[in-house]
Amino acid sequence: MEGFTYNNIFEMKGIEYLAIVAFFAILIPFWIFLNKEVKTKKNAQKSLGTLTPDSLKIPHGLFFSRFHTWTHLERSGVAKVGLDDLLVHITGEVTFNRLLDSGDRIKKGDFLGEIVQNDKRLKVYSPISGKIMETNSVLIKNPELMNEDPYLKGWIYKIKPTSWVTDTQSYFLAEDASLWARQELTRFKDFLSESIVKYSPDPSSVVLQDGGELRDQPLSELSTEIWQDFQTEFMSKKVLCRRKSCFREPDKLKND
User: Fold this and answer.
1) Which PANTHER family has this protein been placed in (predicted)?
2) Which CATH number do you get for residue 65?
3) Which end of the chain, N or C, is less packed with Cβ atoms under 10 Å?
4) What are the pLDDT digits (tens) for 34-81?
5) Domain tally for the chain?
6) Do 104 and 160 contact (CB within 8 A), yes or no?
């Protein structure tokens, strides 16, 4: 029949289908990429959060020492020992080095080990006297547990105490521990204001978030010299608190 043109509708639709498939083939990877970028930014913002009293975990039932270690006596008569949440928030991701052996005996204030971040180190001191019964082998394989869960999975030692009541009578529990943590955070800010200015021309850009809040894990970005100051001026000084006031007193610790 003249003037009649035959078009295969299935061929035409096939081209349209191919175009749609090609469109989604380009769109889907791009969408995944954008979501990955958003997720990465959110994770970065979370990791660079602010360090405030409300961000600290202070479980009831644990004894917190001025060495920024905690201890908890179990029903078996063995006490767990670990780092407190404030210290791991201040330092950031660390590993625990120079572990003691089972059977070693230590006294309160003795060298317990050191936390390490690259070439930066801090000595940690024991909150109690006793005999080392066990080292947390899971922590050795997964050091990130010290930051993620310092009180349950991130404990360091189990120690059989020899003078539990005497060692812990001046430690902090429950609400007193929360108040002490707030005071220690204020003391840390004072430390930074005095120490960091010696080594950084613009200290605020290093440790402060927008709005002047202290950035989480501030020591992770600071120099070895500031870590050394932190050891001597913050970690190795005896700080006595009487409810709402604290004062410093030099602390004589044994050399490891």
Assistant:
1) GLYCINE CLEAVAGE SYSTEM H PROTEIN, GLYCINE CLEAVAGE SYSTEM H PROTEIN-RELATED
2) 2.40.50.100
3) N
4) 555 434 333 433 445 888 888 899 999 999 999 999 999 999 999 999
5) 1
6) no
